Predict the structure of Branched-chain-amino-acid aminotransferase.
Amino acid sequence: MSEYTITYIKNENPKEKPQSDQLSFGKYFTDHMFIQDYNPDRGWHNPRIVPYQPLTLDPAAIVFHYGQTVFEGLKAYRTKRDNIQLFRPDKNMERLNRSNDRLCIPQIDEEFAIDAIKHLVHIDQEWVPDAPGTSLYIRPFVISTEPYLGVSPSATYQFIVILSPVGAYYEAGINPVKIAVENQFVRAVQGGTGEAKTAGNYASSLKAQEIVSKEGYAQVLWLDGVEKKYIEEVGSMNVFFKINGEIVTPELNGSILEGVTRNSVIQMLKHWDLPVTERKITMEELYQHYQDGALEEAFGSGTAAVISPIGELAWEGHQMVINESKTGPIAKRLYETLTGIQYGTEDDIFNWTTKVSYK
Amino acid sequence: MSEYTITYIKNENPKEKPQSDQLSFGKYFTDHMFIQDYNPDRGWHNPRIVPYQPLTLDPAAIVFHYGQTVFEGLKAYRTKRDNIQLFRPDKNMERLNRSNDRLCIPQIDEEFAIDAIKHLVHIDQEWVPDAPGTSLYIRPFVISTEPYLGVSPSATYQFIVILSPVGAYYEAGINPVKIAVENQFVRAVQGGTGEAKTAGNYASSLKAQEIVSKEGYAQVLWLDGVEKKYIEEVGSMNVFFKINGEIVTPELNGSILEGVTRNSVIQMLKHWDLPVTERKITMEELYQHYQDGALEEAFGSGTAAVISPIGELAWEGHQMVINESKTGPIAKRLYETLTGIQYGTEDDIFNWTTKVSYK
C-alpha cells in the first residue's frame, strides 16, 4: 500500500446536524477527520480518514509546552447548482509550508494535502450547509507530539484536518464594525512569528481583544511592534484603506500575515483597473487623511468574513467615523464579487475555485 | 468532599526507573501525575493524582490552535540526609499566576498548588535520583481544553503537573559554553508575551536555536525586539556580566522572563556585599568593555543549569573569549552556594528550601 493511500474508517454513529440558522463559528464538528503521522524514519505516513474523535497525547508532548504547531483556515462552499467547491486551497497549503519552515516542522506534500481535504469534505458533504452565507470551515493543523521537555523541534508530528459548519458572518448582510487601535499590546514583531500562522500569535492577542471587547469594540487594529506607528493588521484580518481614490494596504514586512483574501482583493482591484498600493502607512498619516476628508473607506479582509467594513476607528482619544459608518462601494463590490465566486454565482475569471471530487 | 481534597489513584504497574547515570533532560517520566479541572461553574475542581497517562482532548481544543497555555519549571532535590526538598516553589507559583493573567487563564490557588506538588513528589519520591547533580524536574502547566475555533479565551482548562528525573547538567562539573548573539530572529518584544512563561515564546525560538546549533553554539543570546541593541536573555536563561568588578544584568522590561534563579543570584550577591546592578546594557557597550579588558565574567542563570558560564560570545564577526573560556570565580561561587543550598550541604540562610512532606 502506497504511503499516499488514504485509509477510511466510516463513522457508524453519525451526529445530528445543527440547523443552518443555528450555526455560529467553530462550535460544531462533522463526523470524520483526517490524520497523518510523521516520524523521522517514515516521513509523513499512514494517512487516514476516521470518525471524529479525541486526540490521545502524552502530557509531555511538545505542543503543550513549547507551542510547536501551525494551522490554516479555508472553506468549502455549496453552490447554487449544488456543487461543493473550495477557494484557493493551494494558497493555504503554500502558506502552511511557509509556517512549517518557520516553526521547524517538516514540509507536507501540498498537492496530497489538497486531495486529502477534498476526500474528507466529500465524505462529510452533507455537512456543507446551504443557507445563504453559510459554509464548511476547514481547519488543517500540525501538532508536535514527541514527549520531551527539552526546548527543541519534535521528532514526531500529526497533520490533522477537522471540519466545522459555520453560519453567515453577517446575519443581516455585510455590516461595518468598530475597531480600537492597540497601543499597549503587540501581536508580532519582525524576526518573530507574525507571518506564520502559529498558535503563539493568537495566544498573544487574547488579552488585548478581551480589553477592547469590554469597551464595545469588535477587534483591535495592531501597530508594528517596533515603533508602534505603522499599521499592520486588524484582529485576525488584513486591512485596506481607500484614500483619495487609491486603495492602500500595509506591505508585507515579516510580521504581517499574508492573507489569501488579501491577495485575492489586490488581484481583483488590479483587474478592475483600480489603483491599489502595498506600502507602509502610519496611524498619524491615516488620521491626517481622515481630517482632510480623504479617508473614504476602511475594511478588513479574511477567510471568516471575506470583507469586513470598518465604520469606526478609535485611536488615542479620537473617534474616527469612516464613510458615515456605512459599507463603502469598494468594500461592497469586493464582498459581492468574492462571495459570488465562492458560491458560484459569479464567473471564476481567475480559476480560484476547485470542485470537491472523490477519486 | 472539599474542592481541595486530592483524590489518589495508585499506579499498579510502576515503570522501571532509569539508572542515575543514564538520565538526560526531560525524557523519562514518573508513575503518577497531578490533574485539576476548571470550568466556569465550579472554578478549579477535582484535584487528583493518577497514574501517568495520555491526555484525551478534542482536536478542536484551543491549546492546539491558539496556544493558550502556560508552564513552570522547578526541581526537587535529594539531600545528603536523604530528605527531599524544593527550591522556592512559591516564586514559581507566583510567576505561573502572572503568566495566567497575561494569557487570560483563571488564577490558581498558589498555596494549594505547592501542596499538590509536594503530595505528588512524595508519592513518586523513589524517582528522585541520588547521584551528584541529579534531581527531579517538576513541570506544572495549564492547557486550554474547550473545543472551539473562535479566537477567544477557553471556558475550560486543566492544570497538570508531571515529573521527570533529570541528570547532572554538567557531566564533568560546571563548564563554560559558546553563545551566539542573535541578529535576525526575535524571541519577544515589549507588549508581547516575553515575561510570561508561555508556549509561543519557545516556539518562536526554535529556528534561531536550530541555526546556531549547526554552527557549534550551545545557545543564542537574544537582543531586544525593538532596536536589536539591548541584551535580553540567553537561550532560556537570564544573563549576568561582571564588568570592572560590578555584576550587571539586564533590567526587567516586560519582554525578559523574571527568573527565579536570577532573583536568587541577585539576592546572594547583595548578601555577599558585591555590587550588582539591574540596568539596560547594549552589545556595543559589552564589546567595548571586552576590548578594554573590563569584561571579567559572563554567565547565564536558570533552573536547568543553575549557573552556566559563558566562555565565548560571537557577535557580528567578533569572537569574544571571556575569562580565557574558564569558569570565573563569581560564577563558581554562585554555583556552589546555590546548588549547596538546593542539596542541603550549605546553610539555607534565606529559607529558600521547603521539605516535601505528605499530609
Summary: The longest strand of chain B covers residues 135-144. Residues 268 and 334 of chain B are 8 Å apart (CA to CA). The first helix of chain B runs from residue 62 to 66. Chain B touches chain A through 68 residues (CB under 8 Å).
